[in-house]
Amino acid sequence: MSSSGTGYGTAVTAWRAAAPDWDAYTRHAFVEGLRDGTLPRAAFLHYLAQDYVFLKHFSRAWALAIVKADTLPEMEAATATVHGLLHYEMGLHVKICAEAGIDAETLAATPEHPGNMAYTRYVLEAGYSGDFLDLLAALAPCVLGYGEIGARLAAEATSDTYGDWIGTYAGDDYQGICRDVGALIDGALTHRLGPDYATLPRFAMLSARFAQATTLEVGFWDMGLSPSSAPA
Ligand SMILES: Cc1ncc(CO)c(N)n1
Questions:
Q1: Which part of the chain is the Thiaminase-2/PQQC domain (predicted)?
Q2: What's the 196 CA to ligand 1 centre distance in angstroms?
């Protein structure tokens, strides 16, 4: 996939281009280790367990988006994402971990790493104290960054080792969610701010939120690469 992104909408394309850490996130050493299969299994499993905890809070944040939405189509889009997270993406974690000998009970008891906590609480707080747009800007790098990573790795992977993981994010279901979320964001901006939303100061503030969440994604990969940084 080209460095211009994967076409998830107008706003996200602008926010992505303005986020200083976008490449650090989507081309992190952890990601490159998934691509060529050199990522140590222990780091992957440590990451997956933390990501299981992450996805629980992330699902809660998308549920909050239902509360903060205005129109029925916005509520439907947010609901579809909650459903995809709980019934599709988390299932992958449970399956891969089960194959590696980590049962669902152990996964559910994973102690939450501070970097993980910082990220999800940042997103949730954007929703608690802000409006639907603040929340979407904080949620967007997670959803769409993984879509971009998955699409690129499906094209560039040189190893099958992490093929299941790559296939989840490169697959039609996940790519469809990414396109829907991109359209949701463009529609929500137009609905609230008008068609010239990209010229407004508010758009720059939302762009900063997107950039902050992107930086927290870099921290998440960093955490994945150093299993020893996990709390007891
Ligand atoms: C940390 C993180 N960001 C984004 C995604 C994609 O949902 C994920 N599973 N984990």
A1: 16-225
A2: 30
Fold of the domain built from segment(s) 17-227: Heme Oxygenase; Chain A (1.20.910)
**Which residue has the CA at smallest separation from atom 5 of ligand 1?**
142
The residue whose C-alpha atom lies closest to atom 7 belonging to ligand 1 is: 143
**183-217: pLDDT as tens digits:** 999 999 999 999 999 999 999 999 999 999 999 99
**Is ipTM > 0.95 here?**
yes
| Residue 55 beta carbon below 6 angstroms from any ligand 1 atom | yes
Boundaries of every domain in the chain: 17-227
Tokens 């994402």 belong to 81
Say how far residue 156 (Cα) sits from the centre of its chain.
Answer: 20
Query: For 112, left (φ over 0), alpha (ψ -120 to 50), or beta?
Result: beta
**Is 74's C-beta closer than 6 angstroms to any atom of ligand 1?**
no
Q: What tens digit of pLDDT does each residue of 23-78 get? A: 999 999 999 999 999 999 999 999 999 999 999 999 999 999 999 999 999 999 99
Q: With a 6 A CB cut-off, is 170 part of the ligand 1 pocket?
A: no
Q: What is the distance between the alpha carbons of residues 216 and 193, in angstroms, rounded to a whole number?
A: 27
